[in-house]
Amino acid sequence: MFRKILDTTRKMISVAWVPLVVLMAGVGAQKLMLLSWNAVVDYHSPHYYESMPVSPRQPAISGQVVLVVVDGLRYDTAMGLPGLTRLRERGAGLRLATGEPSLSLPGWAVIGTGAWQEITGVTTNWYKGRIRVDSIFAEARRAGLLTAVAGAPEWEALYGPWISQERLVRNDDPAVLREALSLQAGKPDLLLIHFASVDKAGHEFGGASRQYYTAAREVDNLIGRLAASLDLRKTTLLITSDHGHRDAGGHGGWEESVTSVPLVALGKGIRPGWAGGGGQVDIAPTVAALLGTSLPRHAVGQPLYPVLDLSWANRVSLELAVAEQRAAFDSRYIQTLEGRGLPQNATAPLLARRAFQERDLRKAEMELKSFDELRETAVANARENRLKEDRLRRLPLVGGAFILASLYLFILYRHRYMGTAVSGALLYFAIYYAFYLARGYHFSLSDVNSEELMAAFFRQRLIEAGIAALLSGLVLAYRIGRKKDATAYILGKCAGGMVYIIAYLLLAQVLTFVYLYGIRFEWALPDLRLGFKYYLDLLQMFATGLSAPVVVLAAAVFGKAVWWAAGRRRRRRKRLAGARSGGTA
Ligand SMILES: [Zn+2]
After folding, report:
1. What is the Å distance from ligand 1's center to 449 Cα?
2. Half-sphere exposure of 223 (CA within 13 A, CB side)
3. Is residue 585 pLDDT above 60, yes or no?
4. Over pLDDT 90: what percentage of the chain?
């Protein structure tokens, strides 16, 4: 009797510890989830770099720059707008690529500074405080120029100290235009106008909807009225957007519909007819070149030379200023990554400067070109070396965790129902991804249409992962329950093996990401497509952990019921067979 109790207890413990370990792993995954979320939201850029040299000012190409930002206007829609098309035909139309996350505030930071998200540190719309890197607004003020903004209050939040005049309007585009036209009376040298309604329509109805196009048409009309009011012999008009929209609505991720934005440029200082491409970071250096200010000191873009109406000498002079600005920034950048600056021969484009002073423009250009190659290689090498170094440092921890988690698999491997447990785990992933893909999701921040829906989005993934685990547990119980020797012990052991394998496969994916990018992002943002998947994997681990005890218990109970029903059928069949054979005898 005592022996039997002891035996039962031993069996129960040997069944129960697996779901408990998976539960603990799930709780750990949840902690890691919060940590990695904060690591992106509160990403502290180490690239602010105080006291960098100011690049030499160039002769202004334009008397005024009016920069229009249409929130959420995607490239293809912009190309189809009649007003914008007319403006484009008088100037230049470009396709620019945004960075990630392709959200509004991060985009406004890129537009104003010429620096990507990992440099500005503005990674989400929750960013608080002033922008910490140099901007076209700051450089314009430094040059004694007037700056003005008409649009959403967040522009003030980012660039407040460097805006001379502002009219903050929320969600009323005709009012924005009225305010912009009244600001125009004060003759600001740099006027930024921000229209918000297109993005709103995108979120509500999707980027392929009629409502979205209608909203874009309305803004198109407003821009037409703005253009008509400007003297484009003195003023340059630039029209762009911060990001696009998915057909179904939403942005933030990597899709082309989201990361392709238009730039239409016309008026003073613009050479018409060019239709190339560039990056969103090129806008700020282009504005600086038009206004003749110093370049924003953290910019990694460059002026869009083909659209600028420049003499050869002025162009080379501008290229020289850009080279000097980049030399200063990249030197600090490489120092931050590797602890040492640019190689000696790349620190300053001295030879180019000398050739320029000797009026040998061809030679100056050649020197600039070779300097640029050197600088780019040095930056790429620094990034690669730092990544390698970081990964090597993480390898023992990641490898150790993986080996530890693999140990139980070797024990499990000898179990008779190992195959059933593995197919149960695979069924789990099939169910989870069937849910996921059926909703049209594809590992992108754009899957979440708006910040308010974020919590609901992740809750839904959590619930679906729980359902998938439970369903595959029940299928497994059904398969084993029909076997003659199915006991509660075998059922529990097998369901435990299944949740363990699910968690194990998730852990392997999580560890791969951690190996590649780490847990805290110190000097760069990770690949955000993988980052999004990483977050969902952690969420699944959490769900698997929470549901593990329930799944194991449910599998034991359900499997036993199946076994009992199957046994009754077996017995009845035997009895019938027995009666039949007895009759013929
Ligand atoms: Zn938006």
Report:
1. 8
2. 33
3. no
4. 79
